[in-house]
């Protein structure tokens, strides 16, 4: 491919030099050649351009001689007959089809690379897979947790927190939905699947949050921003081998929003930036930052 690109570049240089020669010939003797001996100066300039054409021609010949001819002609199928069309409207179809073939080839190449990358970074949350006697795949994960164990983990959290109230609710069977009230600041609905957090909805303290509102966003922009951060933290604290610790760490992190409107940004020192308080909490230190300040 590199040799083919070099050949195309050499042909391009040759065409450019030939075009320059004809341009100089068409313009003839110009004023910049002066009054004395301008014919001789014009001939010297033309000789230099002609020598440049010869050099580019030798370069094209050497590069083309280095190319290996294809073992067989390219098979374009019935599309080769399109080149025989005489009307201008149909002649453009052939080049468009060739571009379509190139585009499809690139799609195949990029999809192959994306498949390899995704296989190296598995997005499944399950772990410990094995096969039973019938050969069916069985998956053991933190989803297979008893409701009593989930209640125990959440009750321990409610005992250790004074400003955060937890209400366990099961509108979808055995899987729990925990309504978290953080002071008089906000409320969050955390949907569990076993002991794994599946979804988080954050709303203001004065907004309703029941089974019909679990998937609707808050009408306040500040709590929509907080909900985006809770989704990022949900993925950060996920641990299939230590699910209890992951839930406790996540609850500790979300509890840091109890000073959402009273704690300034650690970077700029301001309470408001673009009319919003610091909605980002550092995942390790729990320090508040504005979204614009967290990466500064």
From TrEMBL:
Keyword Transmembrane helix set for record: no
A GO term for molecular function: transcription coactivator activity
This protein's record includes keyword Transcription regulation: yes
GO biological processes: regulation of transcription by RNA polymerase II
Highest rank taxon of the organism: Eukaryota
InterPro entries documented for this protein: Mediator_Med27 (IPR021627)
Gene Ontology cellular-component terms listed: mediator complex
Annotated Pfam families: Med27
Cellular localization per UniProt: Nucleus
Keyword terms of this UniProt record: Nucleus, Transcription, Transcription regulation
Family designation: Belongs to the Mediator complex subunit 27 family.
Protein name as annotated: Mediator of RNA polymerase II transcription subunit 27
Organism: Hermetia illucens (Black soldier fly)
Lineage: Eukaryota, Metazoa, Ecdysozoa, Arthropoda, Hexapoda
């Amino acid at each position: 491919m590199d040799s083919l690109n070099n050949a195309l570049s050499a042909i391009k240089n040759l065409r450019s030099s030939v075009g320059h020669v004809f341009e100089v010939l068409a313009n003839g003797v110009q004023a910049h050649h002066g009054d004395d001996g301008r014919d001789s100066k014009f001939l010297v300039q033309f000789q230099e351009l002609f020598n440049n054409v010869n050099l580019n021609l030798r370069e094209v010949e050497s590069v083309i001689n280095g190319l290996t001819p294809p073992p067989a002609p390219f098979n374009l199928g019935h599309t080769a007959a399109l080149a025989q069309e005489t009307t201008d409207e149909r002649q453009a179809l052939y080049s468009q089809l060739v571009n379509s073939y190139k585009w499809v080839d690139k799609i195949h190449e990029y999809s192959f690379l994306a498949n390899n990358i995704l296989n190296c970074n598995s997005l499944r949350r399950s772990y410990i897979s094995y096969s039973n006697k019938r050969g069916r795949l069985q998956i053991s994960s933190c989803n297979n947790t008893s409701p009593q164990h989930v209640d125990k983990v959440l009750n321990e959290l409610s005992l250790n927190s004074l400003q955060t109230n937890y209400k366990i609710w099961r509108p979808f069977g055995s899987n729990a939905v925990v309504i978290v009230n953080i002071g008089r600041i906000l409320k969050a609905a955390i949907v569990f699947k076993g002991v794994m957090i599946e979804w988080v909805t954050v709303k203001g303290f004065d907004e309703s949050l029941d089974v019909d509102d679990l998937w609707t966003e808050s009408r306040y922009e500040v709590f929509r921003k907080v909900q985006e951060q809770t989704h990022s933290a949900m993925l950060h604290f996920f641990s299939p081998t230590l699910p209890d610790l992951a839930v406790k760490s996540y609850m500790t992190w979300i509890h840091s929003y109890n000073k959402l409107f009273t704690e300034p940004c650690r970077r700029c020192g301001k309470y408001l930036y673009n009319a919003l308080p610091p909605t980002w909490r550092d995942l390790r230190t729990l320090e508040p930052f504005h979204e614009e300040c967290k990466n500064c």
